């Protein structure tokens, strides 16, 4: 009888403990692809060259492997406690490499549900990464000596 009581108590305790670990799971939004906004798409005009489009939109996420006349810009956010939001802009170019057609999917006018920290991530194109280094006075790191170890 005592053995049965211990087994049932242990089973209930393990069930309760394993169930508690699910409550504290942290999830976060996962953005993927090209950042696509309505402001970017509104700058596109038919007749623009591919270089001009790259300047406005950046390099496309997908280029058709057998036909370089179609570029796809896809942005997808997998929301932690919700659904998936997807935006897609497909650009078609004529044989001379000029923008001919713009197709949009998704609501580009909505604000993006991502937090952007200006201090994190890669440096922006054209900026000097050495000027973006943290100030030495804010770091608690001893300076590195340039003298050989034999002279120290």
TrEMBL record:
It is found in: Cell outer membrane. The keyword tRNA-binding does not apply. It comes from the Bacteria. Residues 114-152 are annotated as: Disordered. Residues 33-102 form the Outer membrane protein assembly factor BamE domain. Gene3D superfamilies: 3.30.1450.10. Residues 135-152 have a biased composition (Polar residues). InterPro entries: BamE, BamE-like, BamE_dom. PROSITE patterns: PROKAR_LIPOPROTEIN. The keyword RNA-binding does not apply. Coiled coil: none annotated. It is a lipid-anchor. It holds the Pfam family BamE. Keywords: Cell outer membrane, Lipoprotein, Membrane, Palmitate, Signal. Part of the Bam complex. Belongs to the BamE family. Part of the outer membrane protein assembly complex, which is involved in assembly and insertion of beta-barrel proteins into the outer membrane. This is Outer membrane protein assembly factor BamE. It comes from Halomonas casei. The gene is bamE.
